[in-house]
């Protein structure tokens, strides 16, 4: 036996993994070639007119090993359909047009349902609160609410600065007294005095009742 023969025997056999990779590559190449050839055949006008469901190229199903035209007779026809749909889309569309149409209708219905749900979610979302514009407040616009304790748990609320916004003090006094059911009077400085602590109520009510008085224009003196 020559040295060259020894070298041949010494060469390592390809591993099982490498063989599998090579086989996989060959199958992939063969599949790509079939797809290309099938596409060419399906685009031929004479084939489309004569017999569009039976191209010259015979494609064998990897699931049942039968020609794909006979997959309906296999033991797992649904699996065969799924393989054909993912591998040869055009041929699947020719062989199973009703199934394809049904799938498209289901997808369209699902998409419509998703759009309706999205629209409902938008409608259910609370509207975004409009950002309040910052008002530049000057001393001449300020309205003051002062709370003073006279006796135990008895308070007097003094409201001043209303005349800056063109309000009639006497009419405003009567309106506040009626609104909150409290005694009231006007002191020597022209401010309204109210029985009880009405600071929180007035702070909320004044901007609603008199739009010229903004929230930023109200200052409350702590007790």
Walk me through what this model shows.
Strand 3 and strand 4 form a beta hairpin. The protein has 8 helices and 5 strands. Helix 4 packs across helix 5. The longest helix is centred in the middle third of the chain and has 28 residues. The chain is an alpha+beta fold. The protein has a 5-stranded mixed β-sheet with strand order 3-4-2-1-5, covered by helices on one side. It folds into 2 domains: 105 residues, no CATH class; 82 residues, 2-Layer Sandwich (Translation Initiation Factor Eif1). 12% of the residues are buried.
List keywords for this structure.
223 residues, alpha+beta, Translation Initiation Factor Eif1, 2 domains, 5-stranded mixed sheet, 8 helices, 49% helix, rod-shaped
Q: Helix and strand layout, with pairings?
A:
Blueprint: H1 3-10, H2 16-42, H3 45-50, H4 77-87, H5 89-95, H6 97-124, E1 143-149, E2 155-160, H7 169-180, E3 184-186, E4 192-195, H8 199-209, E5 218-221
Parallel strand pairs: 1-5
Antiparallel strand pairs: 1-2, 2-4, 3-4
Counting DSSP E segments of at least 2 residues, the number of strands comes to 5
Q: Give the mean pLDDT.
A: 80
| Percentage of residues in helical conformation | 40-55%
Number of separate domains: 2
Shape: rod-shaped
Order of helices and strands: HHHHHHEEHEEHE
Radius of gyration, whole Å? 44 Å
Number of helices: 8
Summarize the structure.
The chain is an alpha+beta fold and 223 residues long.
